[in-house]
Amino acid sequence: MRLDVITIFPEYFEALRVSLVGRAIEHGIIDLHVHDLRDHTHDVHRTVDDTPYGGGAGMVMRPEPWGEALDAVLDGADDDPLVLFTTPAGRVFSQDAAVHLSGERHLVFCCGRYEGIDQRVVDYAASRWRTGELSIGDYVLNGGEVAVLVVVEAVARLLPGVIGNPESLVEESHNARLLEHPSFTKPRVWRGLEVPEVLLSGDHGRIAAWRQQAGLERTRRMRPDLLG
Ligand code: 6GU
């Protein structure tokens, strides 16, 4: 999968070069390209933002650098790219969305900052490519960089060959509407606290039933909304 990221903070994306995603890049499963939006400015201050028409607080990202950056990244792309703008006004990202995105060949992430990007950039992009606007939840971040890190990690781990044990993906999708059961490892007794006996029983049927029940109870307590 090819990933392009357009941002005024390329440094954020160094984090993708570690751990599982880093290995996926090294192995060629992910082809990551990070672009500095300021490389598409032409003034000495490398200006990317300006005051909003109509007044109000905050700054809006100017359209010209975005137009140039999108053209530079996307002109000539023949792999049906999907252009995604990060914004708290977007559709909320989910595991279902991650599964859908993991089937794409080429994602282009546009990281908004300040009060957002001039709307004409989003409209222009939609006139030329497939586009989407996404948020990662109902809270406000200073910009889309961290949101893109979240989305890339959630998508990357679904790509074939990224996760060491693909069985865990099967289990996850099987239990998609339920929280995970609690987990335990050695030692069997720690500070007087014991691992539930059933997990030591070797009885796979009882263990599966216990986990199912524990996941259900946890979901009722923490996320009753998931049970409808
Ligand atoms: Cl994608 N961007 C910003 N700025 N804030 C957010 C967000 C995105 N998702 C949740 N909050």
TrEMBL record:
Matches recorded under HAMAP family: TrmD
Cellular location(s): Cytoplasm
GO cellular component terms, semicolon-separated: cytosol
Transmembrane segments: none
List of residues binding S-adenosyl-L-methionine: G112, I136, G137, D138, Y139, V140, L141
Keywords: Cytoplasm, Methyltransferase, S-adenosyl-L-methionine, Transferase, tRNA processing
Catalysed reactions listed for this entry: guanosine(37) in tRNA + S-adenosyl-L-methionine = N(1)-methylguanosine(37) in tRNA + S-adenosyl-L-homocysteine + H(+)
Classification via InterPro entries: Alpha/beta_knot_MTases, tRNA_m1G_MeTrfase_C_sf, tRNA_m1G_MeTrfase_TrmD, tRNA_m1G_MTases_N, tRNA_MeTrfase_TRMD/TRM10
EC number: 2.1.1.228
Biological role stated in the UniProt entry: Specifically methylates guanosine-37 in various tRNAs.
Family statement drawn from the similarity comment of this UniProt entry: Belongs to the RNA methyltransferase TrmD family.
Domain tRNA methyltransferase TRMD/TRM10-type residues, every copy: 1-227
GO biological process, one term: tRNA N1-guanine methylation
Name listed for the protein in its UniProt record: tRNA (guanine-N(1)-)-methyltransferase
Any Pfam family: tRNA_m1G_MT
Example GO molecular function: tRNA (guanine(37)-N1)-methyltransferase activity
The UniProt record lists the keyword Secreted: no
Native organism taxonomy: Bacteria, Bacillati, Actinomycetota, Actinomycetes, Micrococcales
Self-association state and partner proteins as the record states: Homodimer.
